[in-house]
Write a structure and sequence with these properties.
single chain; extended; mainly alpha
Length: about 100
C-alpha cells in the first residue's frame, strides 16, 4: 500500500525571501520616496489607498461588517471621552466654583 502524501510544511518550502534582499528593497523604496516632492508623495499615498480600496470586498455582508466595526469604534471613543471627562471633573482644583 502506498504511503499517503505528506502535507507537513517544511521551512525550506515556505521560507520567507532572503532577509538582505528584503532590507535592500525597503531601503530603495525609502530613497525613492525621499526623492519625491510632497505632491508626488501625496499622489503615491492616494494610489496606494486606491489600490487597497479596489482589493477590499464590496459585497453587502462586507459593507455591513464595516458599518458594525465603525459603530463599535465610535462607541469605544465615546466611552473613552466620558471617562476622561469624569476624571478631569474629579481632579479639578476649582470644583467649588462650579465652573
Amino acid at each position: 500500500m502506498p504511503n499517503p502524501p505528506n502535507n507537513d510544511i517544511t521551512a525550506a518550502e515556505h521560507a520567507l525571501p532572503d532577509r538582505d534582499a528584503f532590507d535592500q528593497s525597503i531601503l530603495r523604496q525609502i530613497a525613492v520616496n525621499r526623492a519625491r516632492t510632497p505632491t508626488e508623495r501625496f499622489q503615491a499615498l492616494c494610489d496606494l489607498l486606491d489600490a487597497a480600496r479596489a482589493m477590499a470586498p464590496s459585497d453587502p455582508e462586507s459593507r455591513q461588517r464595516r458599518l458594525r466595526v465603525k459603530a463599535a469604534r465610535e462607541q469605544e471613543r465615546e466611552q473613552w471621552r466620558a471617562e476622561y471627562r469624569r476624571l478631569f471633573a474629579e481632579n479639578r482644583t476649582d470644583a467649588e466654583s462650579g465652573i
